[in-house]
Specification:
6 helices, 7 strands
């Protein structure tokens, strides 16, 4: 198991060439100490675990690793359903546009999406999917997240990947300064 920087893990997610709408996530407070735990999963890619904290509004630090090469039935049940019914929110991973022309094209598509959703009945999931498509997001989907605690499924994920949990916690503690008492919200 290879521990890497959290943003390297997100780069893997973004470059996976998997169906962007097939991702799901579970996240919340770390069991011990400051920061957040996040699990990302896709049936065709596997599952990843990240431990992060915001040093300030502009600087996030953390570590992560791939914890599973596939998502079996046991893991599948620990993440929000694909339809998002049991999710507390939605998430998306975004990469910057490659150049000015691409940025302008994405902005025009995004403007059209927002105008369309403003004029018609919509759901948060439908709007997120259309926005993520407009900006060519590589990963998005339903998420169970609790910024004050740990959502259902997170304890089971931590227990299922206990070895990764211990290894990432040890690596994460080296990233977090001793004088840090709380991350930034």
């Amino acid at each position: 198991m290879r521990v890497r920087e959290w943003d390297d893990i997100l780069r893997d997610v973004a470059e996976s060439d998997a169906d962007p709408a097939g991702w799901r996530a579970v996240g919340g407070d770390r069991r011990d100490g400051i920061g957040e735990d996040l699990y990302l999963a896709h049936p065709g890619v596997g599952a990843f675990q990240l431990k992060t904290y915001a040093r300030n509004p502009y600087e996030v630090e953390g570590v992560g690793t791939r914890v599973a090469r596939s998502v079996d039935d046991e893991l599948d049940g620990l993440f929000p359903a694909h339809d998002g019914e049991d999710a507390t929110g939605l998430f998306g991973v975004q990469q910057p546009a490659e150049d000015e022309k691409t940025a302008q094209e994405q902005a025009q598509r995004l403007e059209t999406v927002v105008e369309t959703h403003a004029d018609a009945p919509t759901t948060p999931r439908a709007m997120l999917e259309d926005v993520m498509d407009a900006v060519d997001s590589p990963a998005y989907g339903p998420m169970a997240f609790d910024q004050y605690d740990r959502p259902d499924g997170m304890e089971q994920l931590s227990e299922t990947f206990e070895e990764a949990e211990q290894l990432l916690t040890a690596e994460f503690e080296e990233v977090v300064d001793d004088e840090v008492e709380r991350g930034f919200y």
